[in-house]
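User: Quick sanity check before I run a bigger batch. Here is a single chain. Can you write out its predicted 3D structure?
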Amino acid sequence: MKASRLRLGMNLWPPFLFAGIRVVEISPDYRYARVKMRLRPWNRNFFGTHFGGSLFAMTDPFWVLLLFHQLGGEHVVWDQAGEIEFVAPGRGTVYAEFRLTDEHVEQVLDQTASGEKALVWFDTDVVGQDGTVIAKVRKQVYARRKRGKQLARA
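Assistant: Done. Predicted structure follows.
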């Protein structure tokens, strides 16, 4: 699937649409994504700042999606675990960026080459417009080669 089509679909996906989460960009090579969320009445908490669940939701699917597309359909990929640390109150628009490196992909390919699973942690900061860190999110992604799939590496 083209990254532009996935971005459009995600922006219409009810959990993102109704939380005010917008996928700004997914690079055509699935190595980068950028997400933003404006502070709205439906995503603020009792104290007038961003609801923590929405902050976590805006980071939820991206590491899995980026890694899945890099592995070429030879692997099962899903979220294994997640953590969030709230650092500062989120006011205004907040952003999160995801950059999948060659090292990330190689780590998974190396760990899964013999059919074993890979559990890889990815870190993402949710930041305000001025660059202030609002939350630190860690996601652990599970990957394993599908049964019967040969490793397609040069």
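The chain is about 25% helix and 35% strand.

User: Great, the batch can go ahead then.
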